[in-house]
């Protein structure tokens, strides 16, 4: 059991857990690796497409939102699989709903990139 830390130690510990979580997502989730590769192209492109700081932040932020949803989806799947691999309606529902969250984040990203990008090319 981890001891309770406060102040700066808590912030440092939390950052370490976050790094561990990102490493686990990278190692275990192919979708995370694919998205990081896609976003490594899109994020620099955001600085070219965005006409203002707000547009750049929207373009980058929606990419990060997709990545966040994907990591949460992987975390939920890991927890459900840890509980049991047999088919259960609630387990399937939880996994489907987490997948739907990723889909919504992607749909948001596509809309933002199309709307902001179309302004640049029109």
Query: How are helices and strands ordered from N to C?
Result: HHHH
Q: Could you say which structural class the secondary elements and strand pairing correspond to?
A: mainly alpha
Counted by DSSP, the helix tally is: 4
Strand content: under 5%
The CATH architecture can be named as Orthogonal Bundle
Largest sheet: none
Which blocks of ≥5 consecutive residues have pLDDT under 50? Answer: none
CATH topology: Helix Hairpins
What global shape is seen?
A: globular
**Subunit arrangement of the protein:** single chain
Radius of gyration (Å): 18 Å
- Mean pLDDT score, rounded? 93
Which percent bin holds the helix content?
Answer: over 70%
Domains (count): 1
Give the termini distance in whole angstroms.
58 Å
Return the CATH class.
Mainly Alpha
Write a structural description:
- Helix content is 87%, strand content 0%.
- It is mainly α and 122 residues long.
- The chain has a single domain, classed as Orthogonal Bundle (Helix Hairpins), CATH 1.10.287.
Give the SSE map.
Layout (H helix, E strand, L loop, with lengths): L6 H22 L1 H20 L3 H31 L5 H33 L1
Search tags:
122 residues; mainly alpha; Helix Hairpins; 4 helices; 87% helix; globular
Short description:
By secondary structure, the protein is mainly α.
């Amino acid at each position: 059991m981890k001891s309770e830390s406060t102040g700066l130690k808590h912030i440092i510990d939390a950052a370490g857990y976050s790094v561990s979580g990102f490493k686990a997502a990278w190692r275990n989730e192919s979708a995370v690796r694919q998205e990081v590769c896609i976003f490594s192209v899109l994020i620099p492109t955001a600085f070219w497409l965005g006409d203002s700081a707000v547009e750049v932040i929207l373009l980058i932020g929606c990419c990060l939102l997709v990545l966040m949803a994907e990591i949460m989806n992987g975390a939920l799947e890991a927890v459900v699989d840890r509980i049991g691999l047999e088919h259960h309606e609630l387990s399937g529902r939880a996994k489907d709903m987490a997948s739907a969250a990723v889909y919504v984040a992607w749909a948001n990203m596509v809309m933002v990139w199309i709307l902001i990008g179309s302004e640049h090319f029109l």
